[in-house]
Amino acid sequence: MNGFVYDIPVKVYFGENQLGHLGEELGKYGKRVLLTYGGGSIKRIGLYDRIIAELKKGGFEVFELSGIEPNPRIESVRRGVRICKEEKIDVLLAVGGGSTIDATKFMAAGACVEHDPWDFLNEKRAPIEKALPIVTVLTLAATGSEMDCGGVISNPETHDKIGRLAPAMLPKVSFLDPTLTYTVSPYQTACGAVDMLSHIIEVYFNMEQDLYMLDCFMEGMMKTIVKYAPIAMKEPENYEARANLMWTSSWAINGFVNGGKQQAWSCHPMEHELSAIYDITHGLGLAILTPRWMEYCLDERTVSKYVQFGVNVFGIRADKEPMAIAHESIERLSEFLFDTLQLKSTFTEVGIKAEDFPVMARKACAGGILPGFKPLEQKDIEKIFEMCL
Ligand code: NZQ
Ligand code: ZN
To answer: Of 99, 153, 200, which is best to mutate to test ligand 1, by the most ligand atoms within 8 angstroms of its C-beta?
Structure first.
């Protein structure tokens, strides 16, 4: 095992009826709160009223920023930064899915600097040393943004979708109430499941080191997703299914499973280029890409990882030829994604066109090499895209 730093300082309130602690937690940071949310789902599910009641009870002065888009845009971040500065906000309260939380992270950081927040993400990579405190109430299990220090922002003008990590943007507190995800549609539930599965696969598929303990942990999380995502789609108010998915989403990406592994990710950089141009749901893009990427990276050197995955996650019999097990693993994953979760399986079905492959592939590897499970150059990524047509 390589050396690593274990530091996951997000306080989590998990379970039903924890919102009573909201006032006490926010109050540690001040009285002027910026409440951020998306397109209105929090109003439709009655959460907005509950939050406002808690804030009134605590005597907070509340400012609001609504309309944060799925695949959140830099313009929303800029609006939030303006409010933070003009209203001297003390703490930001993000209520929603990954898009709301991600945008709020960059508002919190942008409030502490003079420059445009896009400079955190473009080639200037302006340092993120400070951010206003962030508290989150999660309503969709998927990205893990509630417990990680990353965020991904889109700029439709430049067709960019760019991520950035910075410890200063870690939420101080996150409220994880599985009942708040009962209203998430089967489609978004499926996309969320694929996102967390992909976060694990990006780390698990690694030939550098043997981290048995972490591999077992990741296999357990992947089995949890395979078991509970279909149940949550069919029985949206199944508490155990929603709870298992929610806690998995956080642990898939909160840094624990990395444990010294330093390998870069592969499917995520490729997917971000799809949603940058086509504004598709992140989990859907990952579903289409992942089995093709696995097929492309399979060879004599990597086959053992596919065997481990197929046997331990999908229960494939171990007494066959390794290559046969590897192919069966990819098939079982594809069945899960496209039959069980009912996601579209090709670029053609979602309108992604081959003419954009060169530019998307070049940006995914930044014109050089994407140094993941198997290093990929532009031409490799274009081939993977072609397999997705
Ligand atoms: O906008 P509202 O009205 O709230 O509706 C949302 C949105 O339409 C809806 N929704 C959320 N909670 C709901 C609900 N509908 C009914 N009931 C509820 N309880 O779901 C839709 C999608 O929401 P969104 O926040 O966009 O989804 P998700 O959580 O999957 O976030 C996706 C974004 O996160 C980024 C993705 O790239 C994408 O931009 N990611 C962030 C990461 C991170 N911070 O670490 C890592 C990921 O890999 C990912 O890239
Ligand atoms: Zn993701």
So the answer is: 99
The ligand minimizing its distance to the Cα of 281 is 1
Q: Establish if 58 belongs to a structural domain.
A: yes
One domain, residues 245 and 336: yes
In tens, the pLDDT along 116-157 reads 999 999 999 999 999 999 999 999 999 999 999 999 999 999
For residue 162, the cross-strand partners are 153
pLDDT digits (tens, 9 = 90+) for 287-343: 999 999 999 999 999 999 999 999 999 999 999 999 999 999 999 999 999 999 999
Q: Tell me which residue range forms the domain holding 81.
A: 18-176
Boundary (domain end) residue, out of 176, 197, 228: 176
CA distance 210 to 274: 33
Q: Are residues 71 and 170 in the same domain?
A: yes
Question: Span 247-260, mean pLDDT?
Answer: 94
188 lines ligand 1 (CB under 6 A): yes
C-alpha angle 173/243/162, rounded to 5°?
55
Rounded to whole angstroms, the maximal C-alpha distance in the chain is 66
Q: CB of 110 closer than 6 A to ligand 1? A: no
- The answer to the question of residue 7 being in a domain is no
